[in-house]
Amino acid sequence: MTLPETMKAVVLTRHGDMDALHFQTDCPMPAVGPDDVLIKVGACGLNNTDVNTRSGWYSKAVSEATTGDGYCEVGEDDPAWGGAPIAFPRIQGADAVGRVVTVGDNAPADLIGKRVMVDCWMRDWDDPMNRDKTGYFGSERDGGFAEYTTADRRNVAVIDSPLSDAELATFSCSSSTAEGMLSRADVGAGDVVLVTGASGGVGSALIQLAKRRGATVVAMASAAKHTQMADLGADALLDRAPENLGAALMGAIGRDTVTVVADIVGGPYFPTVLDVLARGGRYTCSGAIAGPIVDLDLRTLYLRDLTFTGSTVIPPHIFQDLVRYIEAGEIKPLLAATYPLAELRTAQQVFIDKVHVGNIVVVP
Predict the structure, then answer these.
(1) Contact 192/260 with Cβ under 8 angstroms?
(2) How far is residue 263's CA from residue 200's CA, in Å, rounded to a whole number?
(3) In this predicted structure, what is the pLDDT of residue 72?
(4) Mean pLDDT, rounded, of the chain
(5) Does residue 205 contact residue 331 with C-beta atoms inside 8 Å?
(6) What is the distance, to the nearest Å, from the Cα of residue 333 to the centroid of all Cα atoms in its chain?
(7) Residues with Cβ within 8 Å of residue 84, at least 6 apart in sequence
(8) How many helices (H) and strands (E) does the chain have?
């Protein structure tokens, strides 16, 4: 196919408020390296990394909840997910889905024309298990908030699915994050998993993927969202912050403890969810939208023999497993809304407002 010389994209020019995002119609096409594939983007999902990087929330200078606003003080050395600066201008967007239109010299030619999902985690493929050598698509490299993007040939997976591009764009970041959390916490049959923030992209993926592993799932979300949480397979539904969580659990599942807490909220409610972990229980975390600074009584940790795991950089097999789950119909998309790429600011504000259930996607 004949490729254009320029493309439309949303470009992040600095850390800050929404005005740091600029929709441009004349961005240069991305250069295709020898190991790259060039993808015509069909859809790209939104996630918290987009917001947190734009606002600078990852900096240790920030201790507030994630509001989506820019912060007055952001450390120059640690404003992005990896604790280091990123280069501007940057095209964000990790959850890209589209068709390969051309390939570099080292990439298989038979990828041309194939529909692919992009693995968010960019690796040193000579040392792929080394977390210190990873980058994130849309952070250390331009991502999918554009008409075209490039990715390393080893960071894409051909997908055979009847789902639309927009539906497929709900999976990569959210579901791989969720599966990484559950894998690190070794969740399996017999576990009772409490999911905080269950109506968001990661939370809704946690419900489905924990159920896939045979666990009992208790989902916490506002009552208006409970019907959709039940449709995903949640065994019990609680308000997002019950005053007496143990009593609420007893009423819902007949016991006042859980074996696993899968937390993406953090903030002031952290001690409450910790208190309902059974002896020997596991706490796994991959977010802190209600605030990163929490109150931890170390006696709860050691006297109850608890295990804490953080989860960010996941093993390479997680993404490949996820693609298989999608193709087998074992997990389903939860698409809240789609927006044109030109309306990314609006889409991101809706994402921040958290009125939706599931994922929000932009389409070029």
Answers:
(1) yes
(2) 12
(3) 78
(4) 97
(5) yes
(6) 14
(7) 77, 78
(8) 10, 17
Distance in angstroms (rounded) separating the CA atoms of residues 225 and 205 = 15
Distances (CA, A) of 80 to 62, 87, 108, 240, 245: 12, 10, 33, 28, 34
Nearest Cα neighbor of 236 from 42, 245, 164, 48 is: 245
Q: What b/e sequence results for 46-69 when a residue is b if at least 16 CB atoms lie within 10 Å of its CB, and e otherwise? A: bbbbbbbbbbbbbbebbeebbebe
Q: Give, for 151, the enclosing helix (H) or strand (E).
A: strand 148-152
pTM over 0.90: yes
Rounded distance between C-alpha atoms, residue 276 and residue 83, angstroms: 32
Q: What's the token pair of residue 91?
A: 């095209």
Please identify which residue in the block is written with the tokens 């764009």: 169
Which two three-digit tokens encode residue 363?
């389409």
Give yes or no for a contact between 27 and 82, defined as CB atoms under 8 angstroms apart: no
Write down the residue that tokens 């023999």 correspond to: 305
Instruction: For the chain, state the CA radius of gyration.
Output: 20
Kindly list the distances between the CA atom of residue 259 and the CA atoms of 195, 215, 216, 269, in Å, as whole numbers in the listed order. 11, 10, 10, 18
State pLDDT tens for residues 263-310: 999 999 999 999 999 999 999 999 999 999 999 999 999 999 999 999
Measured in whole angstroms, how far is the alpha carbon of residue 190 from the centre of its chain?
A: 26
3-state secondary structure 1-64: CCCCCEEEEEEECCCCCHHHEEEEEEEECCCCCCCEEEEEEEEEECCHHHHHHHHCCCCCCCCC
Q: Residue 301 is encoded by which pair of tokens?
A: 């940790």
Using the Cα atoms of residue 151, residue 44, residue 98 and residue 207 in order, give the sign of their dihedral: positive
What is the distance between the alpha carbons of residues 40 and 335, in angstroms, rounded to a whole number? 21
Among 352, 347, 22, smallest CA distance to 166 is for: 347
